[in-house]
Design a protein that fits this description.
With 104 residues, the chain is of the alpha+beta class. It has two domains: 45 residues, Helix Hairpins (Orthogonal Bundle); 49 residues, SH3 type barrels (Roll), CATH 2.30.30. Helices cover 36% and strands 25% of the residues. The chain is built from two helices and five strands; from the N terminus they run H-H-E-E-E-E-E. The protein has a five-stranded antiparallel β-sheet. Strand 1 and strand 2 form a beta hairpin. The radius of gyration is 15 Å and the shape is globular. The N and C termini lie far apart (45 Å).
Length: 104
């Protein structure tokens, strides 16, 4: 099996579609934990389609599936590391799970 980091854009997009479809099937069948794993793989694939340089150090983001606002402290590969405002613990998330918080 090819690593996501070695896949072309087309391969990653195809893998994302496959993972979402499989996750939906698992969820409908009641296999929630398996669906969650497939969803995490989806976000990893999405992360490889993104440019980590577009994630701002000190920027605030919503994390899909998490409560609170995430502040990025540093980037390592396709992972953003920082803290959610709901916890003092440092956490890492694939950048594909981040949604920028729009300022008013």
């Amino acid at each position: 099996m090819t690593r996501m980091s070695e896949m072309s854009r087309e391969e990653l997009e195809r893998e994302m579609r496959r993972l979402l479809a499989e996750a939906r099937k698992k969820e409908q069948a009641g296999f929630i934990s398996e669906a969650n794993i497939l969803e995490q793989k989806f976000y990893m694939a999405k992360s490889y389609l993104m440019d980590p340089a577009e994630i701002k150090i000190g920027g605030t983001y919503r994390v899909v599936g998490e409560k609170g606002i995430f502040t990025v402290e540093y980037i390592n590969g396709v992972f953003a590391w920082g803290k959610l405002d709901t916890s003092p613990e440092e956490r890492g998330f694939p950048i594909g799970r981040l949604e920028e918080v729009k300022e008013n």
